[in-house]
Amino acid sequence: MRSALFLVLVLGGTALADERPTLATALKARPDLAAFTKALDRAGLLATLDGSGPFTILAPTDAALEGKRVDRDVIARHLFAGSWTAADAAKAGRLKNASGDEIEFAATDDGARAGGVALLGTEVVARNGVIHVIDGILPIPIRVEASVPEGFPAPGPADEVTLKEYPRYRAARAAGGMGSFWTLFNHIKKHDIAMTAPVEMSMTEAGELLTTTDMAFLYGAPEMGEPGRDGDVDVVDLEPTRVLSFGMFGPLTAERVKEARRAIGERLERDGLATAGDWRLLGYNSPMVPEARRFYELQLPVAARP
Q1: Residues 121, 111: contact at Cβ < 8 Å?
Q2: pLDDT of 18-55, one tens digit each?
Q3: What does DSSP say about strands 55-60 and 129-134: parallel, antiparallel, or unpaired?
Q4: DSSP assignment letter at 94
């Protein structure tokens, strides 16, 4: 009798668990997630969320997606393997999403956050995973493939202008654009200088466009190596610099660069600053990183107006 009762309870529990909706069904039932659900459907991924899983979805609200383009890359940033509650994700600390990026999860006094974006406290537990409703879009993590020079500020953020301070540093510089890369690479290899990120490119104005005049590899510390001429390379010392910086992910189209220059120009006027040097572009990634994920900072040296 006890065994029969146990069997009824087990089967009853299984039946109840199976009655929970799939992630796809649960998403369709949420009118505040309609934009994200439609994007999943357009990408052919909604049917996958009817499968066995399990998956964890960070689903941005319609308000968070208003005016935004939601492509497969955006969607992939919000999908994770496994079924993770907010508490378990915070304990794990970092989870890898479908884009291959590790996203930081944390519990704060204001609630849980993922990649700096707030989880709204809504956990929808489905048959094949969990949905967390969020009030923003997870940012693309900035990949830095080598150490930055001593005292340099961290790269980013993307899509906004910031005022940054750079210390004195030493750089190996060669004339020309991307064709200078191997000249500089052979220089640091010959002198056993470790590669750093970013690579610096000096820019000059050509009408509404900017063109590259030279490229520089930056030494890890200002006392490394020796300044002077080395074949086609000049090793130079650069003094501390204050810049207005606009971070952006590639590809670097002419329109994108114009947008960055416009944003920097507006900040220049707003803060009452003066131009103190030529434009420069910092590139943080190698060709091994997909073009859309390569991060750049367009910068303009500035100083207080007289």
Answers
A1: yes
A2: 689 999 999 999 999 999 999 999 999 999 999 888 99
A3: parallel
A4: E
User: What is the longest distance spanned by two Cα atoms in the chain?
Assistant: 93
Q: Does 161-304 match 20-134 at the fold level?
A: no
Say which CATH class 161-304 falls into. Answer: alpha beta
Q: What is the CATH number of domain 20-134?
A: 2.30.180.10
Instruction: State both tokens at 216.
Output: 């520089």
pLDDT in tens, 115-135: 999 999 889 999 999 999 999
**Burial of 69 (C-beta count, 10 Å sphere; 0-12/13-18/19+):** exposed
Please name the residue ranges forming H helices in 29-94.
34-42, 62-65, 72-77, 86-92
Rounded CA gap, 94 and 80, in Å?
A: 11
Beta bridge partners of 296: 248, 283
| In the block, residue with structure tokens 């301070």 | 165
Q: Where are the domains of the chain?
A: 20-134, 161-304
Provide the pLDDT confidence category of residue 208 given band limits of 50, 70 and 90.
confident
Instruction: Check pLDDT > 70 for residue 90.
Output: yes
Separation CA 90–CA 46 (nearest Å): 27
The residues, any chain, with a CB within 8 Å of residue 248's CB and separated by 6 or more, are 158, 159, 256, 260, 295, 296, 297, 298
3 state SS of 17: helix
Q: Say how many residues make up the chain.
A: 306
